[in-house]
Amino acid sequence: GLVYSDCLTTVSPTYAREIQGKEGFGLESLLIEKKEKLQGILNGIDTSYWNPETDPLLEKNYPTHGNDLKEVLEAKSINRKALQKKLNMDYDPAPLFIAITRLVQQKGPEMIRFGIEYVLKKGGQFILLGSTPEPTLKEEFYSLSEEYRDNPHVHFHFIFDEELAHLTFAAADCILIPSLFEPCGLTQMISLRYGTIPIVHKVGGLSDTVFDIDHEQIPLEKRNGYTFDFPSEDSLRWSIDRAFEHHKNDPQKWHQMLKNGFQKDWSWKTPALEYLEVYRN
Fold this sequence. Notes:
CATH class of the largest domain: Alpha Beta
Radius of gyration: 19 Å
Distance between the termini: 18 Å
Strand content: 5-15%
Structural class: alpha/beta
Order of helices and strands: EHHEHEHEHEHEHEHEHHH
Number of domains: 2
Shape: globular
Number of helices: 11
Strand order of the largest sheet: 5-4-3-6-7-8
CATH topology of the largest domain: Rossmann fold
Number of strands: 8
CATH superfamily of the largest domain: Glycogen Phosphorylase B
Helix content: 40-55%
């Protein structure tokens, strides 16, 4: 298929470049040879389904145009209180971090574990929604949940729960996405749609959708989160520290990220047109 195809597509521009290197897993030479026919097109999300304005699973709906952040923040606070009550967590205005993911090696489970522990150490709250098919990881995270069993600032949910995911996206301040590799990724798009700021490892589609608020070479209107280049505890710590700092002391930066995330069209409209162009050519 790769050899005789007229065109090759994958799910993000950065991943299209990455698979011409070690992410090609033995096919990189062929993909380099075919690079003129290789195109990365970002996925989209169903913005009618993932829509804070109409989502029936939220306690309080809110607009996505980004023009009235006061209404957004008030609604997110209401959703947060509803979520904390549902999960028997303490109400706390400190930053609420989440991870909504499969707990597999690709998703950086060691980084997620570090993030949970570090956020709690700094006085934040954390909710993990993550199932895993891997026995070792299951044991590790079940053990971690037992360690924090009596802590009212953290909740572990090891069963996939779509309804809970909607409310969690709407309630949170930040989402951790420390994937070791990520062809595209959708949770960062959903989180930005719901006004939850992503903290991501700068790989694959994450690199094409999340732009660091402190990166001065990126236009301000594109900056919508926090990124780190290396999957290390120090790198993640630096990003979490900045999130805490901006949440508490720099509302201008925080609101800028929220606005930028809301104003981006995360639907399939643009990807669909790009695929049509590929087929036409």
